[in-house]
Amino acid sequence: MRKVLTLAAIGLLAILLIVSDHPFPPPSEPDREARTAVVALGDSTMSGEGAGSYEPGTNGEDGGNWCHRSTVASITKTQVEADQKINLACSGANSDKLRNEQLPQLRRIAGSNRVTAVVVAIGANDDPRFSEILNKCFEAWGRRNDCTSSVAPEWTKRVRRMIPKVENTLNAIRQTMRDSSYLDSDYQLVVQSYAAPVTPKMPRSLQNLSGCPLRSTDLEWVVEEAVPELSNGLRTAAGKVNARFLDLSRAGEGHEACAAKPETEWFTRLTVDWDGLKNDKRASHALQESFHPNALGHEQIGRCLTEFLAVDKRDGACVPRLDGTLGLTTQS
Length: 332
Description:
Blueprint: H1 2-19, E1 36-42, H2 44-47, H3 74-77, E2 84-87, H4 95-112, E3 114-121, H5 130-143, H6 148-179, E4 188-192, H7 216-240, E5 244-247, H8 274-277, H9 295-309, E6 315-320, E7 326-329
Parallel strand pairs: 1-2, 1-3, 3-4, 4-5, 5-6
Antiparallel strand pairs: 6-7
Helix pairs in contact: 4-6, 6-7
């Protein structure tokens, strides 16, 4: 009897193989269509550096992770219809680190969620090394001379060398999504630029170690030349891969660090982790939060990003409105 049942089972299996390409149900897979997500990639301006409220494990607790990924970063403040807002950005990241460390995570997320938007802020830590520029200007203030004469002549070359690196990174993001069975049209790829965190119009009383120890003449170059040129370079890279571009170069106007009162500023002033200075493992990161968007700044950037994700214009810009909020402008 057992032999007869075995033969019958073999016969049934043969019939199933003939009439169906899938005789047995495939292994269950996560239904990514049921869960939507927007994902942030990039460096400190996207991770939430300066905003505080850092995710556990990203504030140097293990001695190596200083991503300073904030729970109030701009991506979390967007008002978009998505089940998840996932921040993979890491303070200090450049294009290489984004590709090597963040894209594998994006691949996993794209496989188990329907990613509707990928927002990227990258490039400043490549050849421009923007934070290094600000550090040099800080040092120049202490020596009572300028930083512009040493950095300005090389700035255009630095930005030009950055463009192909950002382009390659954006192409890698595209390929990661394609490998996860996405068409380019299935999601928005948004490249976000950088805002000037300080203003040459600050009161002299704040140009010191308790505020913003930077010279007005140096800041004029940063605001009027360096930041706009960096934004134009990122716009070029975005255009080469058919990505959208959100210009933040003017996003801080009137709300920069040391512009007025701390409660109305969207960027951190010189910020020192005094306790960290006492710890050899943390001392080198004691100034890390300085001159980054603060929690209020991330809230405003998130507001503008929300508006941009809701329209179909290729380019947009975030500029302060008369009512004191940050809003979107687009070309008709």
